[in-house]
User: Fold these one by one.
Assistant:
Number 1:
Amino acid sequence: MRLVFTQAAWLFTFLNQNHHHHHRSGLGGGVVTSPFETQTNHDGHPTTMIAMRASSSKQTGPEESETILDAVIIGAGWAGLAAANLLVKRGVENIRILEAKGHIGGRAYTETHEWAGDEIPIDMGAMWLHGASKNILNKLALKYNVKTPLSTYDTIIYKPDGTSYDHEEVEEYREQLFDEGFFSVQADRQMTTDYDEPLQKSCDVFLDQLDTTQEEEKKKLTKFFLRSGIEMEYSGLLKDHSLWWWNDDYDLGGSIDTEDYFVPQGHNSLVLPFASWLQENDKIQLNAPVTCIDYQDKDVVHVHHYSGKGDETSSTICCRAKKVIVTVPLGVLKADRISFLPKLPKRTQKSIRRLGMGKMNKVFLLWSKEDVFWPRDTEVLGDLEERDSNFVFCNPRQHNGDLPLLFAFFQGSLADAAEEAFAHTHPEEYENRIRDLAMESLRSMFGNEIPMPKKVVVTKWNVDEYTMGAYSFNKVKMGKLDRYFLSQPIGKDQLFFAGEATHRRYFATTAGAFMTGRTAARKVLKSLQKQETPAS
């Protein structure tokens, strides 16, 4: 499931039943932060600069631990937790997870909010188990007795005149306009183009074929399907998606079964019990943002990190380890929020640069039960009107005990501007602006008389310094093997990378993050065993 974001782009499974697509919710991985001095890189992002050479930092820099750990894992999202769990199971307990935030879970994190006298779970990132029973995390749900009802994705799309398309009509038009229409056009272009190009060009070609007055409503439907089925599904804009590789992912389980389980209790119901041994045995250090990884010494890697909240008052510490697994989100790597000494290989840097990091957020809106105005048993609500910032709403009432809540995935420049201007400094203003944008969409569906929500919760993944985006997507001009190259060990088998961005087929999902964490742990185990085996 995808993150945020998030996680999961978490919406229209029905759009993708025949094309190996699946929903994403913002997903996992903890991260790093800015170090002692900051500049900006060529993308305008803050970049980490260590004001001393590694050799001198070992002598005069941060306090250095005398203990040499077998492994340090950076990030306590699903990738980091899965890696640590496997290492411990194989007898390697001399490990530490460094997590930048004050909680575990990364982009699979549940907040608890009080509402009508109850504590309700709100998933800020990942929300579904994509692929249902075929998802590797479903084993944990069964083990921990976590309820996972099947999402139906029953959908209503509202027209500007107040009428609507019901789910059967939506499915019929989806097949006609998306499966047989747009998808055929882009498939032909995939086969005939000599160079990769933005997926937007295929969209424009198909929409031009509908360029008549009689087809105007079909054009609006097509654009809705493209927004919800691609831009929100994969978290990147059509102009940024690669024609060749945008849908180069597989459904979980290797089939076209795209059923998804919803997790009403929140993903913490999976994350916390899975990480219980690690937490009980003090293997996870929270509020420990990493600033520099120095792997110049072929025997020991020096990991510099803050101890505390990560601000100027925090002390800096250097821990040492034989191996380091980096599970930070791609957005953090792209922004150079962590320094590597020596620099990462050019091939790795190129892969980081060419992969895309999507922008996506969610808003949760709660009303009093007597104020509910939307159909109870319809899971997905959308409208055809195009706006600067677009929202697609989900209604989980049939899964969450009839809680009067809607949540929506959204993208757009007005929403982005509000996030950048207010999310950190004036969070209430940020919530109000996103609420107003969301209500504009809801009023177009249900009329101007609907009541304002009583409570609003909004994510801010794009400006979160420990994620810097929702989840990864396949960007135009990327290389087919960029994710593979990003997953390869670096140095003398000292650095290992994991996380959703390193999985070629299950990128942008929590299952993908989990699997890459275990893969990295196996590589570490093999490398440690090789070091300990004397040469014959």
Number 2:
Amino acid sequence: RQSANKLRERRRDLGTMAIEGGVVTLGITEQVAATKARAGDTSAAAIAKAAAKPATAAGKIATGDVAGAIEHERKKPAPTIKGPSDDAPDPKSKAAMLVSGSTAKAAAVTPATAKALAAAPTSAMAITGDKTLVTAVERQQKIGSVMASGAGAMAEPVGPKAKAKAKAGASTFAVAKTPASAYPAAAVATGPPPAAPASVIDIVTGTPQPVLESSSNSLPAKLPSMTTSTPVGPARAYAKVAAPALRQAVAASAGGAVLVGSDGATSVAKKTVEFGAEGPAAVAVGRAVEAGVANPITLKGGKALVPIGKKYQIVFVTSEVAPFSKTGGLGEAMDGLPTALAAFGHRVMVISPRYDQYKDAWDTSFWSSVNMAGKEEKVHFYHSYKQKVDYVFIDHDGFLERVEGMSGSKLYGPEWGKDYADNQARFAYFCKAALVAVKDLPLGGFPYGHQTVIVANDWHSSLLPMFVHAQRAADPSMWKDTKTAFLCHNAVFQGRFNYEEGLADVFDVPQEYIDSITFMMPLKVGKYNKKVKC
């Protein structure tokens, strides 16, 4: 009886281990709770306690050292159970072997095993490609939401060693080596090597040519001064039209001449101003010339200005925007392009998820909801105003909780090339919530509303034009003056997911919209990959 009491006390000390049916499982909930409590306690005593090396198994687990807790328990002397007891497990069970320090292979429990136990099909740790993957409808039935909650990945290390590896270009992930015997034998090619079609070779090696979608989009239709034989794209065509105006501006600035702007104002050039023959500035001048502006360039304060006759409300919907979030070129483009357009006088907003707690973004106190699979998912926004651009961040646990710590590059999956299992539902919600911000969020006293140009960027926001069309079809008064555009930054990642039954209910759109975005193609880009319904 005394030995049984000791065993019971030891099990209580371990805290996050429960012996059920002879199998040891790790209490992930208790471990996460201990981690959160530890993160919230910043007292000096707590810091000193965290710095000390825990002596008990419970202390080790509280500091995240699950492996250390198990090893600590194994090293304890095994109790001798002299008599039967209701509290004592079967000595031959897996649980008894672990507690008694047995090295039997069947009783081994590692942190990797704990992670596998936690990665349920409905958890945030699940990724696309898992055999036990569930649909959004099934996720809704099991956990009450089409989006998983909680942490799905751990933050990347930020210590000195990690920074050194990053500078050296070393990968932070261990890549498992597949034995050569696991690959099928390669077929031996016979005969002459295949030759690429001449049309493909010409595309790769020939002179770049513009792709004209229709006769109304041809250069003569857009630029009457250009001929059909002009082997240039629209940007260079506009630059060619701007050339005479650019030369006149340079000559005038060299002689200190008075330049008269389109509004009648005059300015004196005090120094020579140089203009690029191509680029955005030349395109702007070319557009002004084609619009019939007599003096398309005005010098003011030593700077060349091009009159803008029309100003727009422009909204960029993007899954990342630097410096708040970034994994590559998309985040960088969304940092520069909106700022440049705002400098031209347009009213510009960028909408992105709130992955972390951004110090420059403030709570708007605005609350709304969108329908996802029959449930009203909350919509909440944070806002920042920088360089004449409105930055709006969609605040939802599906984004903010996904990474334990700073999100870094794990916005879409735990590692490169792997998607969180609920990404399709997550970013569908993102698109619908973004439309709420455009329509209803008051910024500067009033919302952007329907007289807006909305630019969707990459696959994460590609459903937004479809939602605009569906809402307009249901209510013609909605989005009646709204224009949408899609801007592709990375064609490798296209947001292809396995087809799911009930997706129309999840997105809250008629089935015809789901049919319009359903294809037979590989989930990963590449013509040799297996085609599936996606």
Number 3:
Amino acid sequence: KARKPEVLVPPPPEVGAMSFQRGNDYMSPGAFGGSAGSSGRGHLPRQQDRRAPSDNQTRTHGHQPGQQPKGKHTRGVELQQGTAWGKDKFEEDSGEESEESKEGWPPVTLVLMSLAGIAVVCMVVYMLWPKSGADASELLSHVTLQEYGVLGLKDGEPADANQHAPGLWTAVVVPTGLGVISTNDPSSASGASGAIYRWAGLSSFPPEVQSMTTDGQALYVPEETAKLIYVLTPYLRGMSSHEEAIAALKSTYTQVLNEFTKSLATELRLLPLSSGIDAGSFSLELPRITFAALAAALASLSDVQRDYLFSKKINMCIFMPTDYDTYRGECPSCATGLSAAAAAPATLQAAPAPVSPWLAPASPQPPPAQLTVTVVPYGVLGAALGQSGAMYPPGANVAIVDPAGLPFIEENNPQQAGGASGAIYGELGLTSFPALVTANVVNEGDAAFYTYPGKFSVIHVASPTLTMVDDNTQAQEKLTTAFRNVFQAFAGQQTATELRLLPISGGIYSGPFSERLPQMSAIAASQAFMSLDTNAQNVLSGSQVEMCIFSPQDVPTYQAAFSSMSGAR
């Protein structure tokens, strides 16, 4: 029996039917997707098909009554309000799919991508989601209460008696005021802030600190000689309840802990925030409020975050001896005594890998490699200034550092060199540099290892010339590069087991940095060591490393410099 062709007739408009009007363009509510009986794909309708037909209009998609439409579709689509016009019309005689129907990712690919994205999101949320059940006493047991301020001194104790000065890997919290920041004059500050600014040698605030405007905000900024965490302490004077004060301090301590992880330091020195006049009516209760806020801050972290922090040293430093017992009474679970960073043997430690600690694995990690540097009172050839002969001459297992001048290597004329280099070349009887040295030492800071038969090994390094350098950061970077190349050269050989360092860029090469060279050398050695790969660090940590000081009067200065950086003995 012959089948009647289906005729598509739009329904009459209903009262209250929805439509969206923009200018002269009409769009039905279903323009982004057809009804259940349509084959719409969710695309905008074509411009020419956007207007609905009139009530008396019959739509046959180009086919006469009684004809079978060509193409893939064999039956009409009932037109309802909400159907996307234009997209659901029949294909023409070619019977091919339009290009629009071929767009998009294959369904299997979309499913796999969605599942992968969901898995990543779930993993991150699980790791960062604070876990319940954290006990305040257990959390605070990871905090050590110290009987000195963040700079290592007690109230009334002279500076020369400081046995607990912050080391290279110590981050110090600085309570900062908006008034002092607005004047950009750290020297005008008093109390703990003023002492820290003077210790760090600050003459002005970094631009990022000057942009701090919110009470309770914390920001880590690496200074030239210190790791500082600036904190705009909350004003508790205008607060009416303990809960409000605890909440404000909890937010601040949480920010401090977050900023500490950015420093890659191994020790954090806290102090009671919002003390003094900032405490207002809570001054007598500040010890209890402090530990309640700190415990709440620790409890708000995820397990992974806490595992990272608890692998470091967290010290609460009490400057006033009269306040120590009060704070001790409010935190009986806190550890006491010297921090491990101050009491441990002086060693240079490799900093943790610069990977976000929030995404670090929670499983125990091997301890970082350590480099122990011993400051000795003789030069790399084993003799001291004023001695007639070498008491500790280098043997075949020793590699000594030659602070060479680049022009002498470029001209291949070691006989014209003086100072430490001249003495080394004279001991070797060197009349020209080996080809390996001239080929690899072409820029300041470059280094090359060479074993001289029957003598000892030498690491020739082109000493950076600091005479024309005015910027402290640039000078420090040049020294660090030179030390790193020396360490790499030593780690890449299998002959020597002892490395004798000396101050690179000393004497005429030091320029305006001669007085600060001991401290800069300690920082350079530490930064160079932490930048090495694990294999190189292991070689150095398993070797004997000495910093050889030829002039006896300079030995105490270098010992103090390396000890203050937690890197020598």
Number 4:
Amino acid sequence: RSQALSTSSLCTAPRPGPSSRSTRARAFPTRTNWTRNCAMSDPAVAIAKANEPVPDMVKQFVVYFYRHIREKNVYEILSMYEKSFPAISERYFKASAWPSVESIAKYADDDHVFCLLYKEMYFRHVFGKGTPTLEQRVESWDNYANLFSVILHGNVNMQLPNLWLWEMIDEFIYQFQSHCQYRGRVVGKTKDELAQLNLCDANGTWSAATVLNFLHQMVEKSEIVSHLDKERATALKFSETEGYEYAASNVLRTLGYFSLIGISRVKILTGDYEGALATLDPIDLDKPGLFTKVAGASVSTAYHVGFAYFMLGRYTDATRHFNQSLVFVNRHKVAATRPYSLDLLLKKQEQMYALCAMSVILGGNGSSNGGVSVSCAARLLEEGVAGSLREKHGDDMSRMAQGVVSAFDEAFSFACPKFVTPGGPPSTVSDTAGDDASAAGGGANYNEEAYRRELKKFIAEVSSREKLPTLRSLLKLYTSISVPKLADLMEISVEELREQLEVLRKKSHVTQWSSGASALSGELVSVTDLDVTVAGDAIKTSDVAAPRGNGEYFLRHIAKQNTLMEDLAPAKALVYKGKLPGQTA
């Protein structure tokens, strides 16, 4: 049943065990190598692809790439993956796909596992350079399913760079997200295309359930949760060694680690924010870990965790994560080695600045008045981040502080992730769209349904604060005032004023994480600079002095000095060749 791996030097078949024969049959193809497997599926097509011309540069790349993977030379694998592959893509395949896997298989000894890895990179290039066809989406899904099945059910003896393993999970989720977006656009699709999409749904191709199933299997089979628990007990040093072990493969365990982040990301895309944060409980988000060693993983984790906190109304926690990531991006974007990865980091950076602007206003209960110096959430920002935030969103924050709902709407639309509706459009609407693109329902874009649902939640939260800026500005003028008098000044009824005072009281506190393993744990903290007490018809106010952060100020500058000294350490000492004062020739 597992003869396909018998000729592979990268992964061998598992020993017979308690697992059923049917499980092993599903896990591995039944052919001895890649060429035979492809030939059996469609001989004519396979022969034509196998005879396609392959540029010498690609031949050389495949030969050396396969050799380094077989020899477990992680540094050379990383160099070829991070530098050579993008360079060849930019020079030879800027507007076209790489040679087919059938045409290059012979240069890698027809190794089944290597061909799966090559095909994973092949489709990533296809998705990155244009809009893939439905056939390519399905073929990429089949390749991921085969690759993950080999890793889950075989004895992997490879060592792969953590960067590749992270981007494997990241691309897997991106292609799921892309398929959901494609599935939701029913306008312009023919009956045949819709029938193919319905067949994909029936087979579980790129469905949320099957995507999550693969990720959960990766977490369970790798036993990564128990390893991280042991690391907390100082029994293991998984993060310190970055998952690499001398006599064992790092592939399954590291994929299991990044799958935790992937599961959290999928849940955020579907609107399950509490579930997303609970999934990350095994990972200490406030400490350096494996995810902080890979730039893309660090930024993606901070963005999605911060967004989950943001949607749960925990604005200080959201600001803390955004600030850490923005500082990280500012330090690492100078040393970025791949232009396309830098573009992704900069896009996430701009989105986090927009989310940070909203968090500062909402997390300060309007106390910042559009600035970033008074708000409770704003005090969590590093000085450089606060300065950039003023430059980029100063005017927007002034509008937000005045309760302008449209300012929040614009910022949210720009900064939110692309939500998905896993089920796709109803089949009745799909049938209608296939009959006539202009028919009723045929022009609908069901991708917007998930976005509108999350936007509606957020705007409802913002709208409940719409009158708070006016209320706060009036309360700031008095130390005591009666309820009827304040109602007259605001031109609202007494009952409505009491409702607004209750809203002000509730919004003056947020749940903030302080310690503990769970990202959902926390305690209520005050985020206002105005204490309001209502006793009957009497309202009393008093200013709350903001704590002076002298200690944090000095610690930040000490850290900056240490960073500068580390950067200057490799520099050569200056040699003075002139005469010293009082020195004679």
